[in-house]
Amino acid sequence: MKVTLTLFLALFIPIFSYAQADSLFIKRMSDDIMRNGKAYELLYELTKKIGGRLAGSPQQQQAITWGKRNMELLGPDKVFLQACKSPNWKRGGADFAAIVGVQGEARIQPLAALALGNSMGSNGMIEAEVVAVASFDELEKRKSEVKGKIVYYHSVFDETKIQTFRAYGESGAFRRSGASRAAKYGALGIMIHSLSTAPDNAPHTGSMSYEKDLPMIPAVALGPNDAKMLYALAQKGSVKVQMQTYGQFLCDVDDQNVVAEIKGSEFPNEYITLGGHLDSWDVNEGAHDDGAGVVHTLEVLRVMKALNYKPKRTIRFVLFANEENGVRGGNEYANQAKLKNENHIFALESDAGGFTPRSIGITASGAAFKKFQAWSNLLKPYGAEVTLGGGGTDIGPLARVNPSTIIAGLVPDSQRYFDLHHAKTDVFENVNKRELLLGAVNMAAIVYLIDQYGVNP
Amino acid sequence: MKVTLTLFLALFIPIFSYAQADSLFIKRMSDDIMRNGKAYELLYELTKKIGGRLAGSPQQQQAITWGKRNMELLGPDKVFLQACKSPNWKRGGADFAAIVGVQGEARIQPLAALALGNSMGSNGMIEAEVVAVASFDELEKRKSEVKGKIVYYHSVFDETKIQTFRAYGESGAFRRSGASRAAKYGALGIMIHSLSTAPDNAPHTGSMSYEKDLPMIPAVALGPNDAKMLYALAQKGSVKVQMQTYGQFLCDVDDQNVVAEIKGSEFPNEYITLGGHLDSWDVNEGAHDDGAGVVHTLEVLRVMKALNYKPKRTIRFVLFANEENGVRGGNEYANQAKLKNENHIFALESDAGGFTPRSIGITASGAAFKKFQAWSNLLKPYGAEVTLGGGGTDIGPLARVNPSTIIAGLVPDSQRYFDLHHAKTDVFENVNKRELLLGAVNMAAIVYLIDQYGVNP
Fold this sequence. Notes:
The structure is a homodimer. Chain A has 13 helices and 16 strands. Chain A is elongated, with a radius of gyration of 24 Å. The longest helix of chain A is centred in the N-terminal third of the chain and has 35 residues, at about 1-35. In chain A, helix 2 crosses helix 7, helix 3 (about 60-75) packs parallel to helix 7 and helix 7 (about 285-305) packs across helix 13 (about 435-455). Helix content of chain A is about 40%, strand content about 25%. By secondary structure, chain A is α/β, with parallel strands linked by helices. The first copy, chain A, starts with a helix and ends with a helix. In chain A, strand 6, helix 5 (about 165-185) and strand 7 (about 190-195) form a beta-alpha-beta unit. Chain A has two domains: about 25-90 and about 250-455, Aminopeptidase (3-Layer(aba) Sandwich), CATH 3.40.630.10; about 95-245, Glucose Oxidase, domain 1.
């Protein structure tokens, strides 16, 4: 009996202690972040002292300097910049849209509008009747009506989708490719319903692109209330609108990823990356998108240094350049990794806001995922778990150049994200301190676990 | 083989279909709530057109009329009022607190302050030195210093507690009983650090009570920033403060629970109750506390009627009176249930805010809980699960008069609740529409499941 117990203890205590040590270290990180975290104060600086940070703006350059200085203050082994060229899209003026006639009668009604990012200006005011469609199918059926008109896409969110990113993915097609699909049939411009869940009238911008060899017609997103009103009017009869935008591309500009690194003590050639993107749209402070991801990244670095954590593997903390309208930073990070033949085992992005965390979503195959999923119990005290599927725009290229890199994303609660995403309402005041810090806790936990145990099943 | 398969199907299809029917009906409710829900618009009316609704205020009477009318419009089998007498505490004036001396030097510094609910006025301005303590232990050790002084309790939240209700439970002891514990040693008044997680200076009120036969000394909560400043000064040397409050109780007032009922078709004598409380503190709109619970309750009634759901059991939708400073409504509901010998099998309260739902917390013993827990998969698509432990102040009395009543609470994410709980910031603008509606979805789902399957293991 005594021998059996001893044997039992000899076999099981190390395993138990291991798990307990993990749980204790994660709690130490959590306590330190919730008590001493600087993410909220840093976000204040980034949003209020610098502001909107579209590639090509002076603010993006200031943000690089700010990010580098703050990384250096935290004392990683090194901090370096990775140069890239980013597109330089300028909004160029105050976007304008208005209803000017309903059923043949003159009627002036301004519409809250923002030009879509990367869209070209209208070259003066354009005026035309609206062809309002609810889908690309409807556009195809009514293509003969489109020539010389302005197409309005009723790209409302499917409110019944509890995961709002799914509704965004669907309705987002109109923003991304609606202009060229309408230009093909001779449209002069397009308007969309903002990709918004908010019960307000703020228009939401966001990137679009044109197909080659088609006219680059102007494109605006309307405030949700105005968009619904326009759609209702257009279903009853003819509606004439005006629009004017000023978008243009200047020459590409010098841009930079900002990277901090802590060298691994056992497996220095295995890289773990975590990051968010430093740029934002021009119309807001980029607080949730992606100021949150930036300060999450800095916070994980801060807590690891504050607790004197010595990683086994090399950890990279990256503030990516130009996610919003080019992904040049993410591509350059992947190119450099490939050029230097770096073994990137894991990359984690925070680019879904600073809301209360629900999970760490990991894209991994069966056996590896099972290993990660077993860590759910270690995340649960901090409100999260490990779920299947996840990544981020900036780390996607890394997985494309090296398919063995496992990518993951912080999954915050998504109910409020599209209320303010790409709208003027994405400001510091709409970020909650505890929710923000808790995102960093869960990121720190998963990075710690990957560092301790690697990614092999 | 063929026979075996048939047998297999015969055995398992009914079970499968059952679960699928549940999942489909819950999805129908969710779709209808997320698309056509009226909770947000009703909350606007309750908060912006009526406002703060402390028992004894004209607004509480307006809210009763409003609640009854809105229930009637939804067409349940009956709507009735349950009369009770509620306490009638009046703040009576603009609470005042200030530092007037530091280390013997005159220094005037106003402090953001709110009298605690149920506390008595100071009878003019009082001025005294501060004894600042961080715990009741410290108060006991320093009891000889307290006579003629004003005791300040440094009742800060433990920020490391991820479940903020736990920190509230701990720090709340100073608000609830700090006055009498200091009065016992001759204190003239008390001040506490507001029970707040917010990085702002808004003071938070909330209920307190006095022990018998001790002086009913005035009690205020200070804004978090001012409280921390006062505590820091008091640790360095003597600090003199002034305070003036005006609290008083007038005669008890007529109050009412507002109750809607849909009669059960199979087990009409088994009652399921869901509800929130109609009253709020006087200093805000009571949007999260507990406007959210009120409109959740109305929303579940709305969707059940909209989908023409005929419950097996009798479902009661209750807007409770006077939760904040007396629980007279909850007690009356329990008394009536006992008097009428009603068999209340289950009661669910929403009184933790209109934030994104995380779980339905159910207080039940082993076998019953296992049954409920198996429904977690049906809640997961809507962001929740079934967790052990939960209830609410208004339904607690029901379980006390009938211990077989199973009680439960909606558990929303708690990170933001104590930023605004009992402070002027608990207003409509701080409620998110989708988060609010999603709370109703999960409440509707659990009420539906209890109605279909009862509570017996």
